[in-house]
Amino acid sequence: MQHMRILILAVSALAASAVAACTGDSSSPPPPETLTPASCPGINLGARPAPLSISTPTPTVLHVFGNGPDTLRYTAEIAVRGTTAYTTTWNVRRVQGNKVNIWDVSGNVPLLVDSLILSGAITTDDVALSDDGKLLVVATEPAPGSIGIFDLADPRHPVLLTRFTNDQTMPGIHTVKLGRVNGKLYGFLSVDPVGDVKARLVIVDLSTPSAPKQVFVKIAGSPYVHDTFPRDGLLFVALWNDGMDIWDIGGCGTGATPENPRQIGNVKTLGGEVHNIWWYHDPAGSKRFAFVGEEGSGSIGSSSRGDIHVVDVSDPTAPKEVAFYNVPGAGTHNFSVDESDGVLYAAYYNGGVRALDIRGDLASCSASQKKTDPATNLSRCDLRLMGREIGVGLTDVGRSVYVWGVQYVNGTVYASDMLNGIWKLGAAK
Amino acid sequence: MVQAIPVVTRADPTATRSALSEGYLSQPVVMAHASYGALRAVGTLDLEGLTLDRGELSTGGYGEGYVDRRHPHAYVHELLVGGQAARGGFDGSIFVGRGFAPFGSDDPMMRPFEKFPVNHHLAQVLERVVAVAALRRGPIVGEFATFDGDEPLMPSSSPNLRRFGDSWAARLTALPATGIEVSASIARVASPEVRVGQGLDQHKASGVARFSRETESSWRYALLEYARTVEYDKAESINTLSSMLGEAAYCRAGVIVAARVERTDRPEEEQLLDPFRTPRPANDLSNLGVSRWTILTGSVSAPRGHMGFVSGRPFVEVARLAVGAGTPAGIFNPELRYGASHMWMLSAGVRLRAGAAHTRMGRYGSADADMSMHGAGAEAGAGTVSPKPESDRMPEMPGMSREQTHSGGMSGHSRNSRCSI
Question: Are A77 and A416 contacting, i.e. CB atoms less than 8 angstroms apart?
């Protein structure tokens, strides 16, 4: 029986080689490879992508289609679905950031069509859309902290279903992310610390949106937990100086759930200050890399610092940093990825928007494209030296920008700029 | 000694973008000190947590979750015990407890103005669990301390003892002549604004020249100060906050006229729904930029009147404030914050006191001219103290001029005179 199995595999491999040779297409994808880590057998991390050599290009300047201004409030995060964009607002400019702006982005210039006011908020920090487009969820600061859950039956005119708040959302919810696990929608809330009370991660069952149910709370982060990234039953947690955690919340098939998560692994990226994460799934099925945003200190409107760190999660129990991207004089904030073309768009505060080609094996680079951190002796590929910076946006608009968030949708990039509102840009590819 | 200052302040405009008038009992403190042989104890109970929970209106002021209001201080402002001894021309002391790190200038509470300067958090490090050693020989005093970097969260909060030893300060003081004191100090303060640690660290430096001299009928006082705080995110310097301050006072026949000019950088933070409050800790390590404050303050106070064992010194204080963008400017805009870039503050009140006040605050044992022992300090005949005490006019000190009495530091830790503030 064993001999028969080997024979079948050998014949299959030979046949696959013959087909590839006959077509003469050397770039056709290799046969699917599986990597199911023992720590998480329910997840197939796919094949390690092939190294990709790119001649260093001059980054494209992302074309600016138009700007929808907001000069009464500072703009914060952005979420876009179809031709409707939602931008939140932050702290106090002329008035407080208790508003969510709703934009028609079907034309070149975003047009404000409606807005939501969340009473008691000074910042509507984060905004998330459910994968079915039925719900809009907004996080608020300061105390008591809440999420506002809105029905999107009419996307241009959301209707409030409920505000969820309790003693665990004090003193404010910094971010909310939505994820579906085994068909059920959950909200993942990153809660600020206050005084002696440490930061927390709160998970809320949103299967009945009008009646959210808290199902999990854990003290997390040092000193902050700023964001999460749920996907395929894994939860990536940004724990500031405690690095990035990977939790099984049902994807590994080992019994963990959002109600009873299991930590699989952790990595402390260089510099810490882990703020946000994107777990990238490339079109060939590889899921080996996660992108981590470092939010260093800065002066809003003037300066920022913090790199993008690339983490190889092939072994989720021992993720390791393999590459990075740095913009001198600026720091990164939130990401959005065009996964079909392999382009990561990063908000870069005073550095505008940056587009990175993230195809291929980002852990593989030449010696001249590597840099070694003298303090830790960690050697990492430098995406800039690898020619992966392929687009730059909003650095040529004739005024200061401070870009908080980006979202890629169908060939268009939308950026939320604290100082200037919403921008509509062309994509890098 | 017990002190309290009923005060009314009008700020026009302030963080509400309008004029605001308020009154409260400021600086209600009880000070005590004791000694037994070589042992010393110093304590200051500050009851501002009961009277100033919302903070004292003080446009430009900031710190500990307050902005444009001065925060109430910890109930246990100072509580230290120590030992002090003199041998072979040296006067040495060690104090342990909650109090001041040896950095910068005196607590503003012991200076001629009711309103604190904006630079309070650049120029003093206080209310920490501190172990401070001082050694004095002749006109030179050296101090070193280790302490916890975390600032108090609120008046009732205790220091984070797990962080004791994560910060240090050192100060060198020269007392070149009677009434003159020059000091330089540095400090490394770990994460003062994030109690659990891992916030921005501060590298601080200060230079202070102080003059205080009193005659039978007058008191002359001046202070020049430069303070700088560089904030670090791990090993990278992020912000530099500087302050220059000069103040002077003259007292004659019990009337004190004082003036202060200050130019200080203030880091701008997110605000809460109450425009006078900021999140503690902040939600990340960024700020909103730096503002630069230029403030001219004038004060006049009438002679102290007495009613039984309580005395009162009425005063008025007026300040003209100008604020603009510092470096980096960030998004700070005075027009957005205040509706104006120039402001006024007017305060009137009465300094009530029973008992003799501590003349200095922020120095212990051998570093405090008042507490220094017979040897080194007295021989030097140098150093400065605040206005002369009535209690110094004691017949058991014949032949010594009052100035000598002060300078020698043998007169005790508390004073009360016509020119005392």
Answer: yes
Name residue B323's beta-bridge partners: B293
- Contact assignment for A297 to B328 by CB distance below 8 Å: no
- Check if the beta carbon of residue B31 is closer than 8 Å to that of residue B136: no
> pTM of this prediction?
0.91
Question: Which tens digit of pLDDT belongs to each residue from B309-356?
Answer: 999 999 999 999 999 999 999 999 999 999 999 999 999 999 999 987
Judge whether A297 is closer than 8 Å to chain B, CB to CB.
yes
Of all residues in chain A, the one with the smallest CA distance to B336 is A94
B379-390 tens-digit pLDDT: 444 556 555 433
CA distance B327 to chain A (A): 9
Contact B211, B413 (CB under 8 A): no
pLDDT at residue B373, as a whole number? 53
Q: B279–A142: do the CB atoms touch at under 8 Å? A: yes
Residue segments in chain A with a per-residue pLDDT below the cut of 50 = 1-26
ipTM: 0.89
Q: Do A346 and A332 form a contact (C-beta atoms < 8 A)?
A: yes
User: In whole angstroms, what separates CA A99 from the centre of its chain?
Assistant: 23
List C-alpha distances in Å: B202 to A105, A304, B168.
Answer: 45, 19, 11
φ and ψ at B15, to 5 degrees? Answer: -65, -15
- To 10 degrees, the CA torsion angle through B234, B240, B241, B242? 130
* B234 vs A: CB within 8 A: yes
| Mean pLDDT (whole number) for B28-39 | 95
Which site among A141, A227, A300 would you substitute to test the B interface, given the most B Cβ atoms closer than 10 Å to its Cβ? Answer: A300
The two structure tokens encoding residue B360: 């200095």
Chain B contact for A71 (CB, 8 A cutoff)? no
- Percent of chain B at pLDDT exceeding 90: 84
8 Å CB contact of B273 and A224: no
Longest dimension (CA), chain B: 63
pLDDT confidence of residue B36: 95
Within the 234-273 window of chain A, which residues sit less than 8 Å (CB to CB) from chain B? 240-241, 271-273
Length of chain B: 421
Cα–Cα distance, A376 to A427 (Å, whole number): 37
Q: What is the spatial distance between Cα A73 and Cα A112, in angstroms, rounded to a whole number?
A: 14
